[in-house]
């Protein structure tokens, strides 16, 4: 492991706003934030640009960035500490275990920001039904899931899942910049977004809500996942 990474891993151990694999937290987030404000998650947060920027703008809401990479989380966590953003925190952990970090109804809404499209492994896409099932376990009914991506494949896949699971589309924008829609929260640019924009890529946005009935992972998708695992 590189020296810089090691320093960052040690640093986040001492950061009050970084919780690593926090299985003790479900049901206690409002004690942590010392308020009852709604909690927004930023999944695949990387350096946490959405959590930090939204945290600055909305002091009456709480934001939690989630990512497995501690050295990336370090960036956002350090800014939040320096700026006294006590409404911003980070979880270092697997999104696959989200229901071990948050309790039922503890999350109001969530962003999925430039998550990897996993072109060869649909089961790892953060809008795969197995993830939607997890989100449903922690999110309040009617909570909005907001996907921002440069991947046409992930955007199309998400549309497919939305139709299959009877989710409701709240907003659907192909190419936020050409349509003049990159305003408000959509104007926040992350590290990966800046790279994609420099390459001239199109940015898609899709916001939707989950159905009231439980998400069920279709057999065909389960089979796909088993085939993926067998090929590993
Ligand atoms: C392409 S980066 C995007 C980072 C950031 N959102 C940005 O736009 O700059 C994708 C991030 O998702 C994280 N990630 C992917 N799958 C994950 C999972 N199952 N659990 C936790 N983190 C995950 C990776 O560690 C990585 O930091």
TrEMBL record:
CDD domains, per the entry: AdoMet_MTases
SUPFAM superfamilies: S-adenosyl-L-methionine-dependent methyltransferases
Residues holding substrate: 120, 150, 190-193
EC number(s) on file: 2.1.1.33
Xref: InterPro entries: SAM-dependent_MTases_sf, tRNA_(Gua-N-7)_MeTrfase_Trmb, tRNA_methyltr_TrmB_bact
One Pfam family, short name: Methyltransf_4
Keyword set, alphabetical order: Methyltransferase, S-adenosyl-L-methionine, Transferase, tRNA processing
Signal peptide span: none
Stored PROSITE patterns: SAM_MT_TRMB (PS51625)
Domain of life from the UniProt record: Bacteria
Residues annotated to bind S-adenosyl-L-methionine: 42, 67, 116
Pathway membership: tRNA modification; N(7)-methylguanine-tRNA biosynthesis
UniProt-listed Gene3D superfamilies: Vaccinia Virus protein VP39
Catalytic activity: guanosine(46) in tRNA + S-adenosyl-L-methionine = N(7)-methylguanosine(46) in tRNA + S-adenosyl-L-homocysteine
Entry keyword Methyltransferase: yes
Presence of the UniProt keyword Transferase in the record: yes
Enzyme class (EC, first level): transferase
UniProt similarity note: Belongs to the class I-like SAM-binding methyltransferase superfamily. TrmB family.
Function noted in UniProt: Catalyzes the formation of N(7)-methylguanine at position 46 (m7G46) in tRNA.
Protein name (Swiss-Prot/TrEMBL): tRNA (guanine-N(7)-)-methyltransferase
Species: Rurimicrobium arvi
Higher taxonomy: Bacteria, Pseudomonadati, Bacteroidota, Chitinophagia, Chitinophagales
């Amino acid at each position: 492991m590189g020296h810089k990474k090691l320093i960052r891993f040690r640093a986040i151990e001492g950061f009050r706003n970084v919780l690593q694999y926090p299985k003790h937290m479900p049901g206690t987030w409002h004690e942590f934030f010392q308020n009852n404000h709604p909690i927004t998650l930023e999944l695949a947060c990387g350096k946490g640009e959405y959590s930090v920027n939204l945290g600055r703008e909305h002091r009456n809401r709480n934001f939690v960035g989630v990512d497995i990479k501690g050295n990336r989380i370090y960036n956002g966590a350090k800014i939040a500490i320096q700026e006294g953003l006590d409404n911003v925190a980070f979880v270092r952990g697997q999104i696959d275990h989200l229901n071990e970090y948050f309790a039922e109804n503890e999350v109001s809404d969530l962003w999925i920001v430039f998550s990897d499209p996993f072109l060869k492994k649909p089961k790892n896409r953060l809008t795969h039904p197995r993830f939607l099932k997890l989100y449903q376990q922690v999110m309040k009914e009617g909570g909005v899931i907001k996907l921002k991506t440069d991947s046409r494949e992930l955007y199309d896949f998400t549309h497919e899942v939305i139709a299959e699971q009877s989710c409701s589309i709240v907003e659907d924008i192909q190419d936020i910049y050409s349509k003049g829609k990159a305003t408000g929260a959509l104007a926040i640019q992350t590290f990966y977004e800046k790279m994609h924009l420099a390459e001239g890529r199109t940015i898609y946005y899709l916001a939707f809500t989950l159905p009231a009935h439980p998400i069920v992972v279709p057999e065909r998708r389960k089979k796909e996942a088993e085939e993926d695992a067998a090929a590993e």
